[in-house]
Structures are given as C-alpha cells and as structure tokens.
C-alpha cells in the first residue's frame, strides 16, 4: 500500500519576501489617510520613545540603528538636513548649564591632552594609511575625524581636500560605526575602572569621535562629567581650523575654503549669560532640559542614517585604520589620564 506524504509547504524566495515586506511598509494605512504608512508609524513611535521618560542617548542611538537596518528611514533626506542643526542648537543649550570659570579650568586642564592627541593621531593615521595602502584622501579624512570631532571634522576637511562623495562616505561610515560603539561601551568601562567624573569627562572628550556621542556618554555618567566633556570637546573642535589650513598646504589645494564651527561661539555666549546674568538663571534648567532632549533626538537620527548600504560601503581596510586609531587614542589617553588626573 502506497503511503502518501503531505506536500511540503512552498516557502517564498528570500528576495520575494523582502519585496513583499518593503511593499507592506510603504502601503498607506486606510484608517489615517494616505500620508501615514507602517514605516512612518514605526519611525514616529521610536521617536516618541526617545523623548519619553524612558528615553536615553544610548537607547536613542540603538532605536535609530534598528529603524535603519530593519525598516529603513522614511525621512532620510530630511534627517540629514535636521541632524547637524539640531546638534548645534542642543550644544548651545547645554551652555546654559555651565559656569564660565569652571569651563576655563576644564579647558586649561585638557589643552595638553588635546594638542598631543591630535598631533599623535594625525601622524599615526598617515603611517597606518600608507601601511594599509589606502587612498591618501580617505586616510586623511579618517585620521582627521578620529583626531578632532568625527563627522564635523570630515565635513570641514573634505572640501579642502576636494574629496569625492565615495571618499567622504567611507570616512563618515567608518567613524560613525566606531562612534556608535563608543557611546555604549565607554560608560560601562568608566564604571568598571572607577573613573572619577573629571577623568571620565576628559577621556570622553579625547577618545570619542563625535560631539553628539561625547555628550551622550558623559550625560549618562554624571553632570560634572558632562560639563567637562562638552567644554573640552568644543575647545578641541576649534582645531578644525588649523588642521584644515594645514591640509590645504600639505595637499596643495588652491583656493581652499575652511568652514568655521560658528555654533561654538553660541555655546560660549550661553555659558557667559548663565554665569554673569543672574536674571536668566531660573530659565537655565529649562534650556538644558530641552538641549538634552534635542541631543537624544540627534542620536536617534544619526542611528537612523546608518543604513546597511553605508555599512557595506566602508570596506575592510578603511575600517581597520579607523579602529586602530580609535583603540590607540583611547588606550593611550586613558593611561595618561589615570596617571595625571584626579
């Protein structure tokens, strides 16, 4: 007697499943009208979680990454335009929570670390880039982003180098990946090593690439760490100007224009108002609270911008250079801080 077996279910091809999922995400919801799709709804819910009492900088970055890699960012172009401005206004708002006298002290303490780490990172980046046989422009962009302030430095140095879009994308992708990792692991390492608020704030400012993740990690550690990290990092960002000018000289770029980080002046102005205009001090906590919310949203948008395409575009050798530079500056600066800073 012949035994019949039930037919095996025919599974959809992975490519067909992805296409069906993508079509579902962009299908307008009939209940709320044609403007709202499942993709936009998930994006909006994640955004609301970020600004809720449960939101935090690491969670915001993680949610942004999940949105980017699972459903995609439905507002990719708008996110790029908003992210930079939102970060700048958030940094200015943080200035209302700082005292000018304490900031000067923190800046004075961090100046030697800043000069040594920037010079050391750019020099090491040159030799590592040659060892890995990287394109000189890509190598210099990665080194500049690691040495100063991540994406801001790359955005400022790129036009001076006359770097093309692919070189900029590779450098930004490599730096942003490591910058995202740093936001999660630095607070954990700081607690494990029993770093003081002063030590951790200084370490963040030197070893984490972007201002957004520096402030995010430091705010997760404590208010004093946040003040020190923000002040030292913004003082460090001013080195974009001499590094960009030096880049124009070394790469012999005629007519190069250097983009100045003007928002740092806004931060200094807010800090001076908070220190010397007592009538504004009752409003300072509100400004700082809004600035922290803006920073959290910035990190969400940064995470949402790291698509799978961006991650694939980096390549092995540029990522190896970026990782070597980051690990080196992190380890050396931590050793120096543990032995010289209380």
List keywords for this structure.
342 residues; mainly alpha; globular; 0% strand
Overview of the structural elements:
- With 342 residues, the protein is mainly α.
- It has one domain (41-340).
- The chain has 16 helices and no strands.
- The chain has helices at residues 14-25, 38-51, 57-71, 76-94, 100-131, 136-147, 151-161, 165-192, 197-207, 211-221, 223-237, 240-250, 263-276, 284-304, 308-314, 316-340.
- α6 (136-147) packs parallel to α16, α10 (211-221) packs antiparallel against α11 and α10 crosses α14 (284-304).
- The radius of gyration is 22 Å and the shape is globular.
- The chain starts with 13 loop residues before the first helix and ends with a helix.
- 44% of the residues are buried.
- The model has no long low-confidence stretch (mean pLDDT 81).
Offer a quick outline of the entry.
It is a multi-pass membrane protein. This protein is an all-alpha fold and 342 residues long. The chain has 16 helices and no strands.
Secondary structure layout:
Blueprint lengths: L13 H12 L12 H14 L5 H15 L4 H19 L5 H32 L4 H12 L3 H11 L3 H28 L4 H11 L3 H11 L1 H15 L2 H11 L12 H14 L7 H21 L3 H7 L1 H25 L2
Helix pairs in contact: 2-3, 3-14, 4-13, 4-14, 5-6, 5-11, 5-16, 6-7, 6-8, 6-16, 7-8, 7-12, 8-10, 8-15, 8-16, 9-10, 9-11, 9-16, 10-11, 10-14
Membrane topology: Multi-pass membrane protein
Subcellular location: Cell membrane
Pfam family, one: Cons_hypoth698
